[in-house]
Design brief:
Bound molecules: pterin cytosine dinucleotide
Strand content: 15-25%
CATH topology of the largest domain: Aldehyde Oxidoreductase, domain 4
InterPro entries: Ald_Oxase/Xan_DH_a/b, Ald_Oxase/Xan_DH_a/b_sf, Ald_Oxase/xanthine_DH-like, AldOxase/xan_DH_MoCoBD1, AldOxase/xan_DH_MoCoBD2, AldOxase/xan_DH_Mopterin-bd_sf
Distance between the termini: 47 Å
Oligomer: single chain
Number of helices: 20
GO molecular function: iron ion binding; oxidoreductase activity
Pfam families: Ald_Xan_dh_C, MoCoBD_1, MoCoBD_2
Shape: globular
Number of domains: 3
Strand order of the largest sheet: 3-5-1-12-9-10-11
CATH superfamily of the largest domain: Aldehyde oxidase/xanthine dehydrogenase, molybdopterin binding domain
Largest sheet: 7 strands, mixed
Keywords: Molybdenum, Oxidoreductase
Protein name: Carbon-monoxide dehydrogenase large subunit
CATH architecture of the largest domain: 2-Layer Sandwich
Length: 789
């Protein structure tokens, strides 16, 4: 059930309708490419090869084409004297950080590297003129997978010996060795997590306008974090003064991680606007976005679990080669290292874990965070390993899990890989999921169907997610070059209407609804009186943006903290006017009342007017009613849950039918249960996509052969089941609202649940692991090599 946005009763926790939807559904919402309709167009020439030396670039023919305004190369950019270096935002010990220039000058390292930019009056002319740019290359061998690339010659970057960017270790290797030596069993799995192509509805785009009179540069772009883009354009790529640079993310059509990063293309667009002193815009085609934008995952892993006869897990050992692509984007190093290794404990008490990750440069598009970033990869390893181990021990997979769950009275729980989980009732969520799916009955049905030659599979996956990276100091100690805080401003107008400004940046999550719910609830005002502003560096003082499921716990924490500050100031003004002590003034439902004298009261909107008149406020108090908070939580929040997939596999064709999908999620207090449910639905779809359909494929020369939506298999609505969702509520003590993030949870849970289900179905064929995506061909080949159906 949804409620009207005008409802004045408590709105936190209600399924308020999304205020974003009317303009999105009627086509009135404005996206980046709607901006600057009269701008000139930028088209960017991409490398023809994955690895080559550039011998020469001749732009003269292109420059002569009718309608072409200018053609620029990397030499022009270099000569302009800008910093010209896309940075990484997380330093690891020994990390190699080769310069990532906006356009290649000497060498191209993957087939998306930019070589030249054409600016033309018209988008089609700009693209046609790219064919006129004559580049002469000396081709080099390309390496595309993280294991093949180790030691491949010639290296992607001269600076990175053997193509290794970092060699990261976490955990106590000696303790793990001892535990393995003492354990009754060791289970092993080798697995690959292929590259995913994040596919938001809107490919990346930028529009830029420069005023030479004031030196003001305005960039509209598809961004998940406009303030970080402004800061990086100022300090690392363009060198444009930060106070004369405005970055605006208008409506953003999905991101899934891809729009966090500062890529060359948006900076090239802004550079062209400055250089030509005219408005320009760039819009990636889908294929261009696939070949240049960040990819996800790309792990090759060996993992082992040491378990005793009774199912007690003693230790875990993981070694992963993580493909980084040709260049380091901002979180490329954090995602496969800390975000991955620290989550391997999942919901379990595993006394010793050791993880080694070798981060490897390859001649491919950069790899970075994609929905679930690092946590999805880590939980996948653990949840596959638990299934493999359970089978080896002859245990039901749910029993092995149950034996090792962290119990409710163990929180805060410190894992052997350094996280301190805030709160959890893991067994409750797992039991709920098993009850909904009727697990025992399903196992009986599975046995009966096998007699008939039908193959039902039941896959269970538990997960924990670390959501809302924080606190800033701890992140800084581990190498982060950005904070974990968020800004929330709550500003009353004199009339009592409110503007909330937050440094998060929506791409579809519904922040304008949920942040308004938080403020309306704290201030006791109708939600219709609250406007939310995001995604504009001029209107929001600072911000870290939206990723890592941080907007509810961290952005929401900032907004509620500011709202509470506003209430405290308003209480003092009300007390002054009601001639009472502030301690004797209660606040409820937007009204200040003197305790024991209910008729002496004042509404918060009236207090706002008094605050701005400033005639009758306490001495020493400044007029006005607003507050700004830089909220820096003490820790991550840790949402969790259990997902169960029930599939039937047809061994002669490899068809997988998902018959049921049950998800029980716990994201603490829910601000808006309808939005939470939407997040779970979208997350499951992406998790299923990874399990059954999606994999970016490069050929041996480094061409992206899945470079369009004709070739890259995304799940369609008809491929997805009805979802049966439920939730438990375990509040987080780590923020004022008790909320935990939810944006990535379901992607993390869905992939192992579906893979576990398919592998479970194929048990009679002796299949104990299959690598994703589980296409018909993969399944059919596994069944055939086991002797057929
Ligand atoms: N929410 C809530 N109660 C909670 C937790 C969250 O009502 N206890 C609401 C929030 O207020 C917000 C939404 O659920 O409206 C998601 O909140 P949160 O978990 O904080 O995640 P973020 O808003 O920070 O979004 C980031 C997350 C990530 S990392 C990816 S990737 C992702 C995702 O969200 N990309 C998305 N969901 C997406 N949804 C859409 N439509 N498009 C994307 O690109």
């Amino acid at each position: 059930m949804t409620t009207s946005p005008d409802a004045a009763d408590q709105v936190f926790g209600s399924s308020v309708e999304r205020r974003e939807d009317p303009s999105l559904l009627t086509g009135k919402a404005e996206f980046t490419d709607d901006k600057l309709p009269d701008a000139a167009h930028v088209a960017i020439l991409r490398s023809q090869f994955a690895h080559a030396r550039i011998e020469s670039v001749d732009t003269s023919t292109a420059a002569e084409r009718d309608g072409v305004i200018a053609v620029f190369t990397g030499e022009d950019i270099e000569a302009s004297g800008i910093p010209n270096s896309i940075p990484t935002a997380w330093m690891l010990p020994g990390l190699v950080t080769p310069q990532y220039r906006l356009m290649a000058t000497d060498k191209v390292r993957h087939s998306g590297d930019a070589i030249a930019a054409v600016v033309a009056e018209d988008r089609y002319v700009a693209h046609d003129a790219l064919d006129d740019v004559d580049v002469s290359y000396e081709r080099l061998d390309a390496a595309t997978t993280p294991t093949e690339a180790v030691g491949a010659e010639p290296p992607v970057h001269e600076e990175a010996e053997d193509n290794v960017a970092f060699d990261f270790e976490l955990g106590d290797a000696d303790a793990v060795d001892e535990a393995f030596a003492a354990a009754d069993h060791v289970s092993t799995v080798e697995l690959e997590q292929p590259r995913i192509l994040p596919t938001p509805v809107e490919p990346r785009a930028a529009a830029a306008s420069y005023d030479p009179g004031t030196d003001e540069l305005t960039v509209w772009m598809t961004s998940q974090n406009p303030h970080l883009h402004r800061m990086l354009m100022s300090t690392a790529t363009l060198g444009h003064p930060e106070h004369k640079l405005t970055v605006i993310a208008p409506e953003v059509g999905g991101g899934f991680g891809k729009k966090i990063y500062h890529y060359p293309d948006e900076a090239i667009t802004a550079w062209c606007a400055k250089r030509l002193e005219r408005d320009v815009k760039w819009q990636a085609t889908r294929s261009e976005d696939y070949v240049t934008g960040s990819h996800g995952r790309d792990h090759i892993t060996e993992a082992e679990l040491a378990v005793d006869d009774d199912g007690t897990v003693r230790a875990m050992r993981v070694e992963t080669h993580a493909g980084l692509g040709a260049h380091l984007l901002q979180f490329a190093t954090a995602t496969p290292s800390y975000l991955y290794a620290t989550i391997l404990s999942s919901e379990y008490d595993i006394p010793a874990i050791h993880c080694r990750v070798v981060g490897v440069f390859t001649n491919t598009a950069p790899v970075d965070a994609y929905r679930g970033a690092g946590r999805a990869e880590g939980i996948y390893v653990t949840e596959r390993l638990f299934d493999v181990a359970a089978r080896g021990l002859g245990l039901d997979p749910t029993e092995l899990r149950r034996t090792n769950l962290v119990a409710p009275d163990e929180f805060p729980f410190e894992t052997s890989v350094g996280l301190v989980y805030d709160s959890g009732e893991y067994e409750r969520a797992m039991d709920r999921a098993l009850e909904i799916v009727d697990y025992d009955d399903l196992r009986e049905r599975q046995a009966a169907l096998r007699e008939e030659g039908r193959y039902l599979g039941i896959g269970v996956a538990n997960f924990v997610e670390s959501a809302g990276l924080s606190p800033s100091k701890a992140a800084g100690e581990l190498g982060a070059q950005a904070g974990g805080w968020e800004v929330g401003v709550v500003r009353f107008h004199p009339s009592g209407k409110i503007v909330v400004a937050c440094g998060t940046a929506d791409q579809g999550q519904g922040h304008r609804t949920t942040l308004a719910q938080i403020a309306a609830d704290e201030l006791g005002v109708p939600i219709a009186d609250v406007e939310v502003v995001e995604g504009n560096t001029d209107e929001v003082p600072q911000g870290m943006g939206t990723y890592g499921s941080r907007s509810a716990p961290v952005g929401g924490g900032a907004v509620s903290t500011s709202a509470r500050k506003v209430v405290e100031k308003a209480r003092k003004i009300a007390a002054h006017q009601l001639e009472a002590d502030a301690d004797d003034v209660e606040f409820e439902d937007g009204e200040f009342r003197v305790k024991g004298a209910a008729q002496r009261s004042m509404g918060i909107a009236d207090v706002a007017m008094q605050a701005y008149l400033g005639h009758d406020i306490p001495d020493e108090m400044e007029p006005g009613l607003e507050a700004t908070s830089y909220y820096d939580p003490e820790n991550f929040t840790f949402p969790f849950g259990t997902h169960v997939a029930v599939v039937e596999v047809e061994p002669t064709t490899g068809d997988v039918e998902i018959q049921r999908y049950v998800a029980v999620d716990d994201c603490g207090e829910q601000i808006n249960p309808m939005i939470v449910e939407g997040q779970i639905h979208g997350g499951i779809a992406q998790g299923i996509g990874a399990a059954l359909f999606e994999a970016a494929q490069y050929d041996g020369s480094g061409n992206l052969v899945t470079g369009s939506m004709n070739d890259y298999a995304l799940p369609r609505a008809s491929d997805l089941p009805e979802y049966e969702t439920d939730s438990t509520v375990t509040p987080s003590p780590h923020n004022p609202l008790g909320v935990k993030g939810v944006g990535e949870s379901a992607t993390i849970g869905a992939t192992p649940a579906v893979v576990n289900a398919v592998v479970d179905a194929l048990e009679p064929f002796g299949v104990d692991h299959l690598d994703m995506p589980l296409t018909n061909e993969t399944i059919w080949a596994a069944v055939e090599s086991a002797g057929g159906s």
